[in-house]
């Protein structure tokens, strides 16, 4: 059996799907077609075949997208896989169209609706028009949260009875063990992600300024991740004035989860935030937006706080509420997050449900 995986980032595919790829290799030879980003060597060591395929991840360009569709056709004709798995919007749409045209079974993974759908307007209508035939022809459509599934179902593009809602990509509980909670003292809030508008960083920075005015050195705000160029002057200013400490992009997050008292993600939309799952597994309380893809990772008032998206005041209140909790209560919230990760987000459970949705056994015994 031959399985082909189409995705838009080699590092993301390796980091979040390596356990699934390992499980699929028990059943088939696994090839992947992805752009050459990070984790390339690790991905080559894991998959049976890695095909370099550049993808413009942002925007819709008819010429480039038509070229991508043609490249997918060529790869499919050459490999003739028995099953194709697609991840993210462009591989989903153009890979799905190519599979449908060539009568190759395929499974679509909706890892988030993306700005095109979330922001509405003509682009949403255009993307849904492309998605409709793709999802109609899919063997199964995986979602990372029920809210995204319901949105597309309401738009009439989800085939009835062929959708499976997963608990995101899951989190490897061994790779992210529950870490000892930091010593009592300064409350350290941590944001992990690309510094961009839709991650809620404008609200985060506004809340951080207010918290620093109230608590001074009693709170710290740590930022980990690359940023869109438009944010560089603001980031420089926030660092110089002592509002945030910026650490850039980091490939290993364990140290940062260990030093944090609370992980904050005020995102506008997510499929399922891997950052929240990793932080919860590490035993850290969470503050995040009350939206699909974030709210599932938190038991509000138990393992963290939910607040409205795009609401700096609400985010500030949640941070203040957390800072005012006793040290023992903060530790307990982190332990509750770890328990939730074990119950719902264990990577092994997610992989098993994915294999079941594909019609494959969860394990092959030698």
Summarize the structure.
The chain is α/β, with parallel strands linked by helices. 45% of the residues lie in helices and 16% in strands.
Structure description:
This protein is of the alpha/beta class and 366 residues long. It has 14 helices and 13 strands. The chain has a 7-stranded parallel sheet, with helices on both faces. Strand 6 (140-143), helix 7 (146-154) and strand 7 (163-165) form a beta-alpha-beta unit. Helix 4 (89-102) packs parallel to helix 6 and helix 11 (274-281) packs across helix 13 (327-344). It starts with a strand and ends in an 8-residue tail after the last helix.
Features:
14 helices, alpha/beta, globular, 366 residues, single chain, seven-stranded parallel β-sheet, six-stranded parallel β-sheet, 45% helix, 13 strands
- Classify the helix fraction into a percent range: 40-55%
Secondary structure class reads alpha/beta
Computed CA radius of gyration, to the nearest angstrom: 21 Å
Strand order of the largest sheet: 3-2-1-4-5-6-7
- Largest sheet features: 7 strands, parallel
Question: What is the count of β-strands?
Answer: 13
The sequence of SSEs as H and E is EHEHEHEHEHHEHEEHEHEHEHEEHHH
Poorly predicted runs are none
Query: Mean of residue pLDDT?
Result: 94
The rough form would be described as globular
- What fraction of the residues are assigned to beta strands by DSSP? 15-25%
**Multimerization status:** single chain
Measure the end-to-end span.
17 Å
